[in-house]
Automatic annotation (TrEMBL):
<keyword id="KW-1003">Cell membrane</keyword>
<keyword id="KW-1133">Transmembrane helix</keyword>
<keyword id="KW-0812">Transmembrane</keyword>
<dbReference type="Pfam" id="PF04143">
    <property type="entry name" value="Sulf_transp"/>
</dbReference>
<feature type="transmembrane region" description="Helical">
    <location>
        <begin position="148"/>
        <end position="168"/>
    </location>
</feature>
<feature type="transmembrane region" description="Helical">
    <location>
        <begin position="270"/>
        <end position="287"/>
    </location>
</feature>
<dbReference type="InterPro" id="IPR036868">
    <property type="entry name" value="TusA-like_sf"/>
</dbReference>
<keyword id="KW-0472">Membrane</keyword>
<feature type="transmembrane region" description="Helical">
    <location>
        <begin position="6"/>
        <end position="27"/>
    </location>
</feature>
<feature type="transmembrane region" description="Helical">
    <location>
        <begin position="39"/>
        <end position="63"/>
    </location>
</feature>
<feature type="domain" description="UPF0033">
    <location>
        <begin position="373"/>
        <end position="397"/>
    </location>
</feature>
<dbReference type="Pfam" id="PF01206">
    <property type="entry name" value="TusA"/>
</dbReference>
<keyword id="KW-0997">Cell inner membrane</keyword>
<dbReference type="InterPro" id="IPR001455">
    <property type="entry name" value="TusA-like"/>
</dbReference>
<feature type="transmembrane region" description="Helical">
    <location>
        <begin position="69"/>
        <end position="92"/>
    </location>
</feature>
<protein>
    <submittedName>
        <fullName>YeeE/YedE thiosulfate transporter family protein</fullName>
    </submittedName>
</protein>
<dbReference type="InterPro" id="IPR007272">
    <property type="entry name" value="Sulf_transp_TsuA/YedE"/>
</dbReference>
């Protein structure tokens, strides 16, 4: 029954929303925050998938099938997908669950992701898709090429993921936490374990309906668009119910915890969301999957497609991060400095320099030695990027008060403060899906 896809999708949406599970952030933080801690969560998912899928296959419960490896399509598609998820502010599954949180930018990204994926798979761009996808080589799985059992890869990989998780847990700083009890977000590694387990359960449930696959986002999203356009009920399969379930589960989790609010992006972010969603659809179609289908499932099967796609996606994320997400220099060249006499002497002035400098952070002094930064409406990771940039302008003993409405920033900003040794003096909710945190330098 395809209804099991909806049930599992709801569970997955809840876990992802409560765990702030974002593969885009995991890859992005390698270069942006210089840490492999979030990426380890993805390795945990892959490890659980690898062991679980190998076990189900050995027991004869499932029989995974492997697509021919199309290296050019996978590399180009993965790279484009990586750029797209940075522009859109989330990967395929992240876009679905953030849509459930009320982010209108994610709605735009999701729509154009589905449209472009459908166009590539069954529509006007199917010829372009086939042109690159048909250029295949005689390679499928890594263990098959090496002539060994998959267990020789699955067990060591699981040990590696477990070792990294233990290391980061032992060396982890303790960030300030806003919520307690059942409202408290899941630890990222706990969420990773749950995503991995749900991914294993997905295989027999999906196979029972004739869909011989596990978790997947791109084809189900394209099928949903095709169904809405053509009315062909055959398009509605277990995978379509899965992605709809992610949306429903995320909405339930966000609504119950007070993290749902319709948030409309500005024009610039809207354009980025549309462009990002389009690149995601084209890229995922060429690559044969997204960060779920390739980055979690195919990697767990140890296929060449999965691991090459993940590397290509990471490369795209790295390039896009370098171009769009790194903080701008906070200092202003001497030629652009404005004489102090031209400023309103009654206005609050940041710092004690004899020359007033026009800053890009929009800081204003709201109390003695307390400066406010408004990032409302900014999608992650921009609240954190702006906070880092603003903190660089403060003197020791001054504080930064940050207003934000990005759910993921409830974890990333306190963790940044803890890692840097900054004191969080206040952290509270401001209405639905709004927060304010004060960090002392």
């Amino acid at each position: 029954m395809i209804i099991t896809g909806l049930v599992l999708g709801i569970a997955l949406g809840i876990v992802m929303q409560r765990g702030r599970f974002c593969v885009t952030g995991m890859l992005r933080d390698i270069s942006l925050a210089h840490t492999w801690r979030p990426f380890t969560a993805l390795l945990i998912v892959i490890a659980i998938h690898a062991v679980g899928i190998a076990g189900l296959t050995a027991a004869g419960i499932i029989q995974p099938e492997y697509d021919p490896f199309a290296p050019y399509a996978v590399i180009v598609g993965g790279f484009l997908f990586g750029i797209g998820i940075v522009l859109a502010g989330g990967c395929a599954s992240g876009t679905w669950y953030r849509s459930g949180e009320g982010l209108v930018g994610s709605w735009f990204a999701l729509l154009f992701y589905g449209l472009s994926a459908a166009a590539m798979k069954t529509g006007a761009l199917s010829g372009l898709n086939s042109w690159l996808r048909d250029r295949t080589v005689n390679l499928t799985t890594i263990h098959g090429s090496l002539g060994m059992s998959v267990w020789w890869l699955a067990i060591p990989f699981a040990a590696l993921a477990a070792g990294l998780a233990v290391y980061f847990l032992r060396t982890d700083s303790t960030p300030a936490s806003l919520q307690a009890g059942w409202k408290k977000p899941l630890h990222l590694y706990v969420a990773a374990v749950l995503v991995g387990l749900l991914g294993i359960i997905a295989w027999p449930l999906s196979a029972a309906t004739g869909r011989n696959d596990g978790l997947g986002i791109t084809s189900p999203t394209a099928n949903l668009i095709n169904f809405l356009v053509t009315g062909e009920s055959t398009r509605v399969d277990w995978g379509v119910m899965l992605v709809l379930g992610i949306l429903v589960g995320s909405f339930i989790a966000a609504k119950v915890t007070g993290e749902f609010r319709v948030r409309v992006p500005d024009a610039t972010q809207t354009v980025k969301s549309i462009a990002g969603g389009t690149l995601m659809g084209v890229g995922a179609a060429w690559a044969g999957g997204c960060t779920v289908g390739n980055g979690m499932v195919q990697t767990g099967l140890f296929t060449y497609q999965g691991w090459v796609a993940l590397a290509a996606i990471a490369a795209g994320v790295f390039v896009a991060t370098k171009i769009w997400l790194h903080p701008r220099p906070t200092s202003v060249p001497e030629a652009e400095q404005v004489p102090f006499e031209s400023f309103n002497l009654n206005a609050p002035v940041l710092g004690s320099s004899a020359v007033a400098v026009a800053t890009s952070t929009g800081l204003r002094e709201v109390a003695p030695a307390v400066f406010a930064l408004d990032t409302l409406g900014s999608v992650c990771p921009f609240p954190l990027i702006d906070a880092k940039e603003a903190m660089n302008e403060l003197d020791s003993g001054e504080s930064l008060r940050i207003d934000f409405d990005c759910t993921q920033a409830t974890e990333s900003i306190p963790r940044w403060a803890a890692d840097e040794g900054f004191e969080v003096t206040d952290f509270h909710e401001v209405g639905d899906a709004g927060w304010q945190i004060t960090v002392g330098k």
